[in-house]
Amino acid sequence: MENIGDSVIRKEALEKVTGKAKYTHDERTKGMFYAKKVISPYAHAKMTAKDTSEARKVKGVRAVITGENLPLIGEEVRDRPPIATDKVRYHGEVVALVVADTPEVAKRAANLIHVSYQPLPTVQSPSHAIEANAPLVHENVAEYEKDEGIEPIPKSNISNHTKIRKGDIEKGWRESEVTVDESFSFSPSDHTAMETRSAKAEIKANGSVVIDTSSQAPFMVKKLMNDYFGIEVGKVIVNTPLVGGGYGGKASVQQEILAYIASKAVGGRQVEVFYSREEDMITAPCHIGLDAKVKLGATKEGTLKVAEIVYLFDGGAYSDKAIHLSRAGAVDCTGPYKIDHVKCDSYSVYTNHPYPAPYRGFSHSEVLFAFERTMDILAKKLHIDPLQLREKNAILPGHTTPTQVRLNRSTIGHVPKCIEKVKKLINWDEGELVEVNDRIVRAKGVSCLWKTSTIPTDSTSGAILTFNEDGTVNLMSGVVEIGTATKTVLAQMVADRLRIDVRDVHVRMKVDTQTTPEHWKTVASRGTFMAGRAALAAADDALTQLKKIASTILRARVDDLDVGNGRVFLREEPSVGLEFKDIAYGYTYPNGNAIGGQIIGRGNYILRHLTELDPETGKGNPGPEWSVGAQAIEVEFDRRDYTYKMLRAASVIDVGKVLNEKSARGQVTGAMSMGLAFGGRETFVFDEQARVLNPRLRTYRPIHYGEHPEYIVEFVETPHIDAPYGARGAGEQGLLGMPAALGNALSTAVGVPLRQLPLTPELIWRTKEGIGE
Amino acid sequence: MTKVAVTLNVNGEESEVLIRPADTLLDVLRENLGLTGSKPGCLNGDCGACTVIVGKKPMKSCLMLAIEAVDQNVTTIEGLTDATVQRAFVEHFAFQCGYCTPGFIMNVHSLKENHPEADGETIKSWMDSNICRCTGYEEIEAAVKSVLYGGQEHHKR
Ligand code: FES
Ligand code: FES
């Protein structure tokens, strides 16, 4: 029997290798309509006219929507028109929708819509956005409806400010003998899931809105449809089949809103909104950019004393998740180190860039790039080995985080162990820099990482187990299968708890918000923890019911019974017992009398003791635990042409407990690959009018086969006591330190500090030779 | 636009379909024949998610008109059953979200048919046409090598 820790093959594997797996855009119905977007070619412009007359004449066009009379939307600040009406604020913004019988007709008509634009000066970066005379992306930011605690600064581009104040900054600087003051920046980029976004919406006669969507957050869609349009939550039904990659990008809600608006315009008929690759990259929310300033102070011996940090997050044209992202960046504003005095000001800032969605790691890889690069620069100044500096200051149980949470042995993983292991794996003692010949050098770089999940304090997860007649079980959870194999891991847990074969746990892959118990969002590596706790609770509930009915039939006390191999039996005499199949659907006595009924186990979970952050100091408990790790990379750098090859990349992640060996490794190497792509090659390239010049996979080029380094992955297992089997998150951690480690390795190779991403040969050459853009 | 009736041979079955001459093979496979295993990832030849086999060669079905496929044998992912490549992808955990998988499998299957002894460089140049965003390619590499005799794992034996 395969069990916890084993490499159980994912439940939907056969569907996926035969082409039978269904994703949102694969399901179509006869008579469905198709919507095509008209998007803005400008990043900032006033719209003076929208001429739709030609488009409306095209045969087969059912509606042309230009966006008037729609509410403003957005998750924490309602600052976004679903379809822009007066002005556009980013390149790719939707300015009209055409609904037609076929995609071809919709496209032809969309091309006939003429919008007149009057270009406005653009805001090019967060640093530019806060300059005194910067153009305003939103003229009246303070007037928007917003959540409590969000404080946009009137007549500015700042949508929110999170403050972290821990200890006494002045004292920290007094105690510091060596200081560094560094700045870093990178532009927004993209998630680039292979499946582009799409959604279908239909309005039923009774007013129910049925939405099919490629989303990581179907339950959020349900909630937001209620918030934005006042539709009763019970009348919003959101279906999500398998999702072709998300990485956070599909946790934002956009395509569903457009589909709903389109359906409404055609009397509730089903309409599909499908995103082309270009639209998926620039119209849909992207990966956030950042301008950062990090000041660190330490004693001569290398004890960190103080950190003073400013993060300007590139919130793009609309706030949506940007504010939350900037808050998460503040929560873990340093690396995983003991620092008594911390001051951080994290801002979410409007620019004329595409607006951000969460991205794997939720601001942590971004912040760690800035912080961990600074650690290396500090180490050089101190003449201390960079790994040793990290080890010396590693955060431990008993220490406090920037939001002043006192950590214990359960709530933080083991940083020193991770450092020690990665040191061996990358052969650190060989030296950071090895000269191969007069042209080639090999260099190594490291980074530590940590992360907690700043999810809402009241996020819930539920699970239902129903038994089949043959004693097997069906598992229903609101976790979306986006590729992480979470539902297979949940099945492993249920099988383990019920002591049955994992093959006897059937998993429902599709999420349907009407019949599937809620799981807040499939993000933040919380699937195995929260949904796992719920699934285990459901299994316990089912066991109680099985034992109860068995106790009647066997005429034995419930606590004299045990389970195993699909049976309930007497502890003392295991041969006396009943098979699950005989009691899972009720029990029938020989004379025909029956008792019981189908066994249905239910369980739920809610995180304990989370609090909001104090607005003045940031003090508060943001998440359930901090998972940690240490990463390293070795590169081969060519000093003549500034190109480099990634040789080996190593990750040591404290996952608490490995639940599925091969899946866990795959999550880590996949995340490492993504982190190296973010660090080394991917960015939107903007022109001087903030237009994205490379919104396609030929010019925005993810890592291809054969371009990856050798991966070395090891795990540390420090249990998180609250989590099933002690497991910590593992889906994001592999990404977090990679950009910083790459930056550190290349800075060592080149001999000058690199402060921007992505680390392309051109950037390295410009930095080394002091050549501006 | 006027539609034309053509006969396509897909996965060994002949089907008559009514298409626009401008329809891509990918569109017709998905919309007319309901074979949605081939995926639209970019519709621009950049990602390989739509790869099928036409004749004996892998082809990005988003770059080919359906009308060009008349009189040719087209094999899609639905046309493979229990192929070595499919089994290898399962055994080696060579996918996560699975969206790139049909394209990769068709490409590898065709590589195996055309160059059963492909060396590392040949493998790399063939695989370069597909993108996987979930994995770090390590497992795909292991799966590919396990089905090709030129693959390292077999050399070692
Ligand atoms: S969809 Fe054909 S190559 Fe991307
Ligand atoms: S498995 Fe998701 S893109 Fe390859």
From TrEMBL, chain A:
The Aldehyde oxidase/xanthine dehydrogenase a/b hammerhead domain, residue ranges: 18-121
Keyword Oxidoreductase: yes
GO MF term set: iron ion binding; oxidoreductase activity
Domain of life of the native organism: Bacteria
UniProt-listed InterPro entries: Ald_Oxase/Xan_DH_a/b (IPR000674), Ald_Oxase/Xan_DH_a/b_sf (IPR036856), Ald_Oxase/xanthine_DH-like (IPR016208), AldOxase/xan_DH_MoCoBD1 (IPR008274), AldOxase/xan_DH_MoCoBD2 (IPR046867), AldOxase/xan_DH_Mopterin-bd_sf (IPR037165)
Keywords per UniProt: Molybdenum, Oxidoreductase
SUPFAM superfamilies noted in UniProt: CO dehydrogenase molybdoprotein N-domain-like, Molybdenum cofactor-binding domain
Gene3D superfamilies: Aldehyde oxidase/xanthine dehydrogenase, a/b hammerhead, Aldehyde oxidase/xanthine dehydrogenase, molybdopterin binding domain
Name of the protein in question: CO/xanthine dehydrogenase Mo-binding subunit
Automatic annotation (TrEMBL), chain B:
InterPro entries, sorted: 2Fe-2S-bd, 2Fe-2S-bd_dom_sf, 2Fe-2S_ferredoxin-like_sf, 2Fe-2S_ferredoxin-type, 2Fe2S_fd_BS, Beta-grasp_dom_sf, Diverse_Oxidoreductases
GO molecular function, a single term: 2 iron, 2 sulfur cluster binding
Domain of life of the organism encoding this protein: Bacteria
Enzyme class label: oxidoreductase
Pathway as given in its UniProt record: Alkaloid degradation; nicotine degradation
Enzyme Commission designation: 1.2.7.4
Keywords attached to this entry: 2Fe-2S, Iron, Iron-sulfur, Metal-binding, Oxidoreductase
Limits of the 2Fe-2S ferredoxin-type domain: 4-80
Designated name of the protein: Carbon-monoxide dehydrogenase small subunit
Lineage: Bacteria, Bacillati, Bacillota, Bacilli, Bacillales
